[in-house]
Amino acid sequence: MKYRFNIIFALSLIGLFLGCANVFAEISEPEREQLKQEIIDQLMQSDSLKQKIMDEIKLHETQKSIQGRDTAQQRTIVQNQIQTKLRPVALERDRLYGNADALISVVEFADFDCPYCRKIHPVLKRLVDDSGGTINWVFRHFPISGHKPNAEREAEAAECAGDLTGQQGFWKFTNALFLQARRGVSDSQAIIDRALVHAEIDKEDLLACLNAGKFKDKVKQDEDEALALGLQGTPANVLINHKTGQVVFRQGAASLETLSVDVDQLLGKSH
Length: 271
Prior knowledge:
Blueprint: H1 2-20, H2 29-44, H3 47-85, E1 95-98, E2 104-110, H4 115-129, E3 135-141, H5 150-179, H6 189-199, H7 203-211, H8 216-228, E4 236-241, E5 247-251, H9 256-266
Parallel strand pairs: 2-3
Antiparallel strand pairs: 1-3, 2-4, 4-5
């Protein structure tokens, strides 16, 4: 591990040195390789450099340990907040996929501009589809500040889609939003327009709803709930057993296997 770190560190220095120095622009590839090896040999013979590398390794390991403790503490804080501050699932308000009477709900707080939300989206769908009606999925909005105003506008557009075409239309529109690449996109309107076509929703009707700000307050309420729970990123998933009241908090783009273990925990199944 330490030897590998030494080599990586040395190669990083070499890359910086060779990449930035114009004097080496005309050196042939064999000469460059020979020079790299000579620099590595010189670096590895330097006791002061070796000590610096060891100090950096210790610092990295210490920071990693602290980060792990902070993550565990944050998870405990959120878990406690959820017990008292998570809004109960309400069919008249929430966007729900699956059996409305399911024993287990996955309440997802998500951001349409979040790549990890895009990654977990089909995973959650499969989790519900494979559950035989045991699990449903509730979507709540948490547009991260760095993704505004696009993420907010897309969230409101999704709610307008649901208002115009029902739960099925909401999920169809949501799927279409997540299917689209976001790199280099500064305006979300083109993304919304393509999602409209996919979901077969009238553009004028949706834009009338969107521009009127009909669901601005609802999106803000979801965001306020996420902040009150202490959530710090997306996706954030809260799994609930409605019979026992037991909850499991899962941050990030968890795998199907991980979520299945969480569900089994809520169902009292051992592994």
